[in-house]
Amino acid sequence: MTLALALLAAYATLRYAQDPRTNGAGAALLRIDPLGAQRAIASDVLASLHAPAAEAHSQTARPAADVLGALRQAPSPSAGRGQVSREGRIQDVNITFYDCLDQGFCGDMYNGEPVYEGAAACSWDLPIGARFVIPGDPTGRVYVCKDRGLLPDTWVDVFWYDPAEGWAWQAQVGRLGAIDVIDLPR
Fold it and tell me: Which own/partner pairs from 49-53 qualify as long-range (CB within 8 Å, at least 24 positions apart)?
C-alpha cells in the first residue's frame, strides 16, 4: 500500500510539473532526491526569505489532489499521542499550510467539501469536526478539521489559495506552537 501511494504521489506531482497551464513553473517546484521521494519546494525568493519555514514545509507538502482518493481508502495511521478526547491546549503542534497555486490542492477536501481559505487538514489524532484556534494567529480564525493528510501527531495544515499569503501567515504563527481545542464532535 505504501509503495502504491508513493508511486501515485510521484505520478501526480510529475503531471502537475509538466502541466502546460503552469507555464513551466511546476517543473521549478519539483525536486527528486536520490531516494526517489518527491518534495515540493518554494521558489528561490521565498526560500531565501523564509528558509527554515520553507524547508520544514517542503518536507510535509502533499502532492497533487489526486492522492485524496487513495487517502480516503487508507486505514488511519496509528496515533502516536492517542486520540484527542478533551478540549484544551495542546503544545508542540506542527503548524504548516498547503495551497492551490503552487501545490495544486484546489479541489475537494477529505470530507468532500470544496477547499476554502482557512480550511484545516489535521493529523489523525484530531477528529474530523474538531474546532480549534491558534494562539497568536493574526486572522483570529476558528479552524475546523475537515481535511486529512498523511501527517504525524499532532499536526495542522491550513489552506491558503496563494502561497505568498501562506508564507506571511506562517512567519507570524510560527512552525511549531500550540492550538486550543475549543470543541470536539460528539
Answer: 49/167, 50/167, 50/170, 50/171, 52/175, 53/167, 53/170, 53/171, 53/175
